[in-house]
Give the backbone structure.
Amino acid sequence: MAYLALVVARNYCLTMMKLPTREQSGVLIAEVSGRIDHTIAEEFTRALAPLLSNCALGRAPLLLDFSGVIYISSAGLRVLMMASRQAKAQQGSFAIAALTPLVQEVFTISRFNLIVPCYANVDAACQALAQ
Amino acid sequence: MKQVRFWGTRGSLPTALTSPDIREKIVSALVAANGRSFRNRAAIDEFVDSLPFSVGGTFGGNSSCVEILTDRPEHLICDMGSGARPLGQAKLARFGVPNPQTYHIFISHLHWDHLMGFPFFAPMYIPGNRIIIHGCHEQLEDAIRLQMRAPCFPVDYSQAGASIEFDRMTPGKPHDICGLTVTPKLQLHAGDSYGYRFDGNGKSVVYSTDSEHKLDDNEAFREFARFFSKADLVIFDAMYSLAEAASVKSDWGHSSNVVGVELCQAAEARRLALFHHEPVHDDKQLARLLAETRRLEQITRGDRPALEIVSAHDGLIVDL
Ligand SMILES: [Zn+2]
Ligand SMILES: [Zn+2]
């Protein structure tokens, strides 16, 4: 029992990153914010996991609202690539929207704009994903 | 250490400019001249110098070969790609024959693009020269002999006039060579590769090519940040884009400009040289990559001092 409590406590600590969700036009939108760097990449992966497991054929598309993200490193970009891969394998729809200009530049320079679907804003993404 | 001179900067395979490439440069230059006439050669040179590097110059196409210049008479060279041919010619032109010289050569790994210049390195055929080949691979000597064996090459290794010695180095251990402290580091690459850190008279240079960095390996990131720590120059394998290196070309053993910037920022290095250029990239693409890398550094700099970024080209000399 004590062991279980420890495991629960540890899992709680490890999933401190919160991704508030909302729904729009049948699309599940998760808000991501802050700096997505090497130190937080693992936590970001864990926070995304439950959302991604539902991102499958016949389920709501998953959209990450990136308007609150001020920085993303290579490790953060990798998490997005893995998420996109998982969604594809499950025949779900996954995309990112509303990148701030600087984060958009990082996507372009790293060429991640070519491997993870990105939309200019949430409305445009919902319109495309809802189809 | 005073300077680093790049003799070969291309990855995987030497490349050559083609007629359409040259034509494109001439057309761009004439468009820029816009009908202007020039009084003399000096005025023409001044105009050419004002053109973008991808128009007035070229990154070159020889494979990996980098020279480290010190105050000592011995020569220090990293890798023996096809850039070793013009390097050898330059040494003969400078020192003549006979004029015995000592060459210390550090080999990152045994892939062909890093060894192919050795049979064309003229000083190896001249008696009196001494060549010491440093490396960490067990098969270092075998690999060098192998490429000079029939039917691959007409001159056998045994025809070398110079005395050639091999020095097997231990990764992670500092070695005293030519007044410098040289530390090799194991890197992720098919068949293993080794980076070399050179420290001497208050300056540090890191040669780290053919090295893949896995984005989820935080421990390796910290190790490399330590290896690059406060270096005056980090010569870095930036062959692919980050997206390529992480997806379709994952496990191909190379890295990207983005990881180069992140590691150098974490290491508080002073200067990053993009190196081991993708053979399919032309001068315009390489110039664009350099501009983008500088922009990335600028937007991710924060409170840190600026990291200077250059893109290595055949003939580039970097003052330390
Ligand atoms: Zn190579
Ligand atoms: Zn290689």
